[in-house]
Amino acid sequence: MAVAVPTILVSQRVDAFPDIGEVRDALDQRLSRFLVTAGFLPVPVPNAIGDVLTIRQWIDRVTPSGIVLSGGNDIGSAPERDATEIELLRYAAEHRLPLLGICRGLQMLVHAHGGLIEQGEGHVRTSHEITEFTNNGTVTRTVNSYHGNVIRSVPARLEVFATSADGTIEGVRHSDLPWEGWMWHPEREGTFNNADVIRLKELFRRD
After folding, report:
1. Structural domain containing residue 20
2. Which helix or strand (DSSP H or E) is residue 170 part of?
3. Is residue 2 domain-resident?
4. Residues contacting 78, CB < 8 A, separation 6+
5. In this predicted model, what pLDDT tens digit does every residue of 118-173 receive, in sequence order?
6. Whole-number Cα distances in Å, 186 to 51, 110, 155, 182
């Protein structure tokens, strides 16, 4: 008997190509591979599906086990994506689904809870150490960094579990829901970090 593989909805970035009159949804192939490596079936979420079917109706038909808000696009630069991700957050909250926000996805978590996102320096196309706060103390490791925006404090119901040396927030979790946000991109490592794979499995309850 085949083992059921949990379906994970993944939001997509929006890329515009005005020279050919196209606006495309896009998903880094490495993120799909990262999710498959961890034992999940990734399903990209369309950002614009017309008037026949709403995003909520589309989600209901897929019946996901979890949701990933991917990186790319500043909040506000692609309103159709913002609207899609807000609906994904509502759905995840209503059904208490596990959710991971990656880079922009973490920023969307903060934004949706009324938090402040600001421009930062020194976090684009580099790597740096972060300190993770665990039940057994602190763990320091190096992660990649591709974000021009930074978060220095979080609103109520979000808790910080990782920071960088300059004090910016690199990881958050929800105080009540099974939600996390990572400012680094686990999919952009040449070899996926086992710590990220394990953390994803734990968050999405696939041990």
Report:
1. 7-203
2. strand 169-174
3. no
4. 13, 14, 47
5. 887 778 788 889 999 988 889 999 999 988 888 889 999 999 999 998 889 999 99
6. 35, 20, 25, 9
3-state helix, strand, coil split of the chain in percent (to 5) is 30, 30, 40
The reported pLDDT for the residue numbered 76 is: 95
Q: The domain spanning residue 47 has which CATH number?
A: 3.40.50.880
Q: How far apart are CA 42 and CA 10, in angstroms?
A: 6
- What confidence score (pLDDT) does residue 123 get? 80
**Residues 6 or more apart from 197 whose CB is under 8 A from it?**
34, 37, 38, 186
Q: Are 73 and 79 in contact (CB under 8 A)?
A: no
CA distance 188 to 195: 14
Residues of the chain with pLDDT under 70: 1-3, 206-207
pLDDT value of residue 57: 93
Domain count for the chain, please give it.
Answer: 1
Is the residue at 64 inside a domain?
yes
CB 92 within 8 A of CB 63: no
| Burial (CB count within 10 angstroms: exposed 0-12, middle 13-18, buried 19+), residue 174 | middle
Residue 156 lies in a domain: yes
Domain-located, residue 1: no
Give the tokens for residue 207: 């041990």
Reading the block at residue 133, the tokens are 């706060």
